[in-house]
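RECORD TYPE: inverse folding
INPUT: structure tokens
STRUCTURE:
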């Protein structure tokens, strides 16, 4: 593995990943798309373990979108089977990882839903890292649900329209228990967000790479983090303002 320098004090707290390229990876090998999805499961295990080791606190993986239900039925069935087989409690317990899900769990097959609910319950006290599966998820679906919940609170008088602020929306999203992603990684060479965490990534750093997900290993993760650490996150401020804040925080810490 190449010696990639990472500042262990500046590890992204929350990394979100669009795991793309399984099908194309398989086609390059004259294999069915499901072969690529199987290989992708192994990559999830490697990246989750390495993320926890590095000190990442939240890892959110785009596993299956609401639009993916429109794929051929045999591929969807195979994906559901892979998801079920990948939910091995031992892996989560070994790495002290808590499992959570964002998405429409009630669209999932009963056996998958039951396994997910059991895994969520059994790992709820693990605290090294939270692995969040965005499963049967899309951002527009999530935001629509949040708007409906807010509208219901207005209808019942619990909330007044003039009281609605950015935090109101944030607190009604499925990700309300976690910070917004610091870093969004997309593998597979595509340069789009694909309806993923649209509200939450307003100020995330975006990293795109050509590597297909089954080939995305620990070194690739290190490259993405090193690239993230080379950037200055300004949140609308000027470079000088950010540098002044850093100097002030350094002085206050002494």
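DESIGNED SEQUENCE:
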């Amino acid at each position: 593995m190449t010696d990639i320098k990472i500042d262990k004090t500046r590890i992204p707290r929350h990394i979100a990943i669009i795991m793309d390229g399984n099908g194309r990876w398989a086609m390059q090998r004259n294999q069915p798309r499901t072969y690529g999805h199987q290989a992708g499961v192994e990559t999830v295990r490697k990246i989750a373990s390495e993320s926890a080791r590095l000190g990442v606190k939240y890892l959110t993986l785009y596993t299956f979108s609401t639009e993916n239900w429109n794929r051929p039925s045999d591929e969807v069935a195979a994906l559901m089977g892979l998801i079920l087989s990948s939910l091995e409690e031992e892996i989560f317990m070994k790495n002290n990882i808590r499992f959570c899900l964002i998405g429409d769990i009630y669209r999932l097959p009963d056996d998958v839903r039951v396994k997910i609910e059991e895994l969520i319950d059994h790992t709820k006290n693990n605290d090294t890292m939270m692995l969040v599966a965005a499963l049967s998820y899309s951002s527009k679906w999530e935001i629509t649900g949040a708007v409906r919940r807010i509208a219901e609170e207005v209808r019942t008088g619990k909330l007044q329209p003039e009281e609605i602020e950015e935090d109101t929306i944030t607190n009604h999203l499925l990700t309300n228990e976690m910070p917004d992603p610091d870093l969004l990684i997309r593998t597979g060479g595509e340069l789009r967000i694909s309806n993923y965490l649209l509200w939450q990534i307003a100020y995330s750093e975006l990293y795109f790479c050509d590597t297909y997900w089954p080939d995305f290993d620990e070194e690739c993760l290190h490259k993405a983090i090193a690239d993230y650490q080379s950037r200055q996150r300004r949140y609308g401020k000027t470079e000088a303002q950010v540098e002044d804040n850093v100097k002030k925080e350094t002085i206050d810490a002494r």
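NOTES: The chain has a mean pLDDT of 92.
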